[in-house]
């Protein structure tokens, strides 16, 4: 009788452990997915920033060129 009880207990314990492991795995997977999404968003933001910077640089260059042109005209 006691052995049966202990057996069932050990079985239930092992089952519980397995369930916990599965849950952990699922959580890990979810975390990974979230991380990937965050990384993607960050990359997109960086790209946008780079584009903006490039545009600004172009504008600055243009303005300097124009200034030179104007200076030459006035001289």
UniProtKB/TrEMBL annotation:
Annotated InterPro entries: H1/H5 (IPR005819)
GO CC term, one of those recorded: nucleosome
Signal peptide start and end residues: 1-16
Keyword Signal: yes
Gene Ontology terms for molecular function: DNA binding; structural constituent of chromatin
Keyword Thylakoid set for record: no
Biased composition (Basic residues): 16-65
Region (Disordered): 16-75
UniProt keyword list: Signal
Any Gene Ontology biological process: nucleosome assembly
Name of the protein: Uncharacterized protein
Organism of origin: Liparis tanakae (Tanaka's snailfish)
